[in-house]
Each structure stands twice: as structure tokens, then as C-alpha cells.
Amino acid sequence: MVNFSARLSNTRKKFSFFGNSPTSKSIAESTWSEIEETLIGADVGVNASLEIVGDLKKETDRLGVSSISELTELLKKQLKVRLGGLDVSLSDDGDPAVWLFVGPNGVGKTTSIGKIASKKIAEGHSVVLAAGDTFRAAASEQLAMWADRAGAHIVTGADGADPSSIIFDATEYAKARQVSLVLADTAGRLHTKKNLMEELSKIQRVAGKGPGTVKEILLVMDSTTGQNGLVQAAQFAEVVDITGIVLTKLDGSARGGIIFAIQTELGIPVKLVGLGEGLEDLALFDAGTFVDALFETKA
User: Fold this and answer.
1) What's the pTM?
2) Range of weakest confidence among 68-82, 84-98, 249-263
3) How far apart are CA 140 and CA 133, in angstroms?
4) Residue 186 in contact with residue 165, Cβ under 8 Å?
5) For the chain, domain boundaries
């Protein structure tokens, strides 16, 4: 099992106010602005931070909380509730089920697909990878390496081929061989390029016309981009029906608080998080474990 605490040290430093304050210290008026600044500095986002502090004040008054230690425990509970209100399950029931992976260049889509394929095959699923990124040099070759490593099938096309047709062919290939899951790569694209973004809508439509059922559309985000990633996510959500986020590079990021902003601003659940380079380091997101790791005093 992935050790969240060990991998979140950079983000935890951003929450250092809570770990460094004496537990017996009383709550002062300045405490609220300090908490607010801490949350914003951790990339939780202005709106989410203001909401969190506002709710925290109300609960503190209602419960008569007076010390920093009590306040910290109350904050942890509130953050867990805030992150735990969305469905983070991944649906793989289908004949076959299709998961589409979308996002900008360089965020780790292909690597995430490979790691997920390895996990699903280890769980007993059969998997087809669809090489729908026909524009990036060597994208198909990279995905083929992951297919070979994981023991998955792969369907590819020529460079520059229509990605929708490749993904459609992959669903037919999977149906014919009774493969239960299709993981479809797509070309990285800038959220500002309208024609490329609109192509994603076509991919979603065509993928659903074959024998498969689109069960997940996962937006892969690089956690180190912080609030810029939030803008990207909003743009992608306008053109396809995002069901969840795969948040990569969380182990090297000081901006892990972006998870709160994503779920507050967009209402999209973070379903998977990347915490390292190993196969086991792409983990299902668990709100309780994540929040506990942020407040842990021992690294």
C-alpha cells in the first residue's frame, strides 16, 4: 500500500502552521487570517479557503473550541468531509467498459494508462489499450511498451489517423475477444485550441457508438501546475463529460491543496493520485488518508 505521508512531504510543509503551533496555544483573532493564508499558500484556492475558514469559525463558536489542538482536529474533520462528499469509485462494468483519458501534453496520460492497465490485469481483468494519440511522436510506441509490460492487448493506427476510429476499432476488438476494459489514450492538447478541444467531443460520441460503453472520462492533471491546472480542467469539462481526475506528480508537488480547489470549484472528484514512478504509486484517492498525511507531525 502506498505511504501517503512519506510522499506528501512537500505539500505538508505548506500546512506547517498547524504542525508548528503549540497545541496549548489559544485561538486569537489573528489565527483565522493565518489559517486562511496557509490554505491559500497550499493552493487550496481563495474561494475554497474562505469557505473552509468560514465554516470553521461557525463550528468553533458552536462547540466552544478554544485551543489550537482542538481547532486542528476540527479542521481535519471538516476537510475530510469536504473531500469525501464525491463519488471516487471507478466504473468498469461494461461489455466492454471504456475509459477515455484526456488532458494537456506532458501530464502523464500514457504512463497513467500503463499503470492502470497493470493494476487491472493483476486484479483479473482483461484490457485493451487504444492508441488514440496519433499526433505525438512515438506515443503509440510508448503505449505499446506499457501493453507489453502489463500483458494487455493494444490497437493502433497510422500516424495522423483519426483517433475516434482507432478507439472505435478498439471497442470492437475488445468485444470480439471478450475483453472487459478498454483504456483509450488521446492526444495532449492545449485547452486554448478550440478545434482540438472540439475533437474530444467527437471522440466521446464515437467511442459510445461501438459495442463498448463509455464509463469513465478521466482528466489527467499535473499537480505541480496548481491553479493553472484548475483553469485547464474547467475548459476540458466544457467539452467532455469528465467523471474524475487523475492527479499526477503529487509526490514532488507543494501544491497538493489543489485537490480542494478542484472539488470545490468544479465538483469533479479526484479518483487517482500519482505518488511516484513505480507501478504501485498510482493510488486510489482516499480523503481521510490524504488529510491525515497533511497534518502528520513526523515526516
Assistant:
1) 0.90
2) 249-263
3) 7
4) no
5) 97-242
